[in-house]
Design brief:
This protein is about 40% helix and about 15% strand. The protein has an eight-stranded mixed β-sheet with strand order 3-4-2-5-1-6-7-8, sandwiched between helices.
């Protein structure tokens, strides 16, 4: 089992939508996937048709003294979803981050048990204790960036997770500024992934439909690029497998 974290270099670069899209693409290739929301914004669930009013999630369960596995949801036979859960502002401000440590430890238990081929984690941007704990548990990290000056500055002034790969999202064909930035990054950044996600209206529309990109518009350019990225992950990030398929997290 491989644990892959996806983290935006800042907010608003499309990390949550890309996490959902990659999870969908991997399960299309026959991989069993658990996708986990590690962001207090609790938005990942909305890409998997979870009702907006639903408050359940692993963090909600941990704080309520319940079994976090009961918050898991079965989306397809190959894809399970674990939302973060809805916390109030006062709860999040007052909670000691050590209270959320159990899931980080359980990630290692999942890896030992080989319950899934992949665990994908939608990581919060920044350097909060929770983000650092999850990053440390990941085998690989993709840093999501957009070709704009904000991300360009951040690439040169803030550290990235050790060994992380850079995934460019929302590349516009015909933008001179973006093309210039892309060329600079190709020369200066040694860990840019070979797959780039181009600007595609389907990536914005899929969240409105509460579906992962590839389910909403499998024929879109971005969906095809996500399948290419999933194949790259199989070649470069997959872990050797032992034994057969085991029972997964209960929905």
């Amino acid at each position: 089992m491989a644990i892959l974290g996806l983290q935006g270099i800042r907010g608003g670069v499309g990390t949550t939508s890309i996490t959902a899209a990659l999870a969908w693409s991997l399960q299309l290739l026959g991989e069993s996937v658990l996708v986990i929301d590690a962001c207090p914004d609790n938005l990942l669930r909305l890409s998997f048709n979870v009702d907006f009013a639903s408050r359940g999630g692993w963090a909600r369960s941990v704080l309520d003294g319940q079994d976090w596995r009961d918050a898991g949801m079965r989306y397809t036979s190959q894809l399970d979803v674990l939302p973060f859960g809805q916390l109030t502002t006062s709860e999040w401000d007052s909670v000691h981050h050590d209270a959320l440590n159990p899931l980080v430890s359980l990630l290692q238990a999942l890896k030992t048990q080989q319950q899934y081929h992949w665990v994908l984690i939608d990581l919060p941007h920044g350097f909060s204790p929770l983000a650092r704990q999850f990053v440390a548990a990941c085998d690989h990290v993709f840093t999501i960036i957009k070709p704009d000056i904000n991300c360009h500055i951040r690439l040169h002034q803030q550290p990235l997770p050790a060994g992380s790969h850079i995934l460019i999202n929302d590349l516009r064909i015909g933008s001179q500024l973006q093309d210039d930035l892309w060329q600079v990054w190709l020369q200066s950044q040694t860990r840019i992934l070979p797959t780039t996600i181009h600007r595609d209206e389907a990536l914005a529309e899929c969240l409105a439909s509460k579906q992962p990109l590839g389910e909403y518009r499998s024929d879109s350019l971005a969906a095809e690029e996500m399948v290419t990225l999933a194949n790259w992950c199989l070649l470069h990030c997959a872990q050797p497998r032992e034994g057969g398929e085991r029972e997964r997290i209960r929905p």
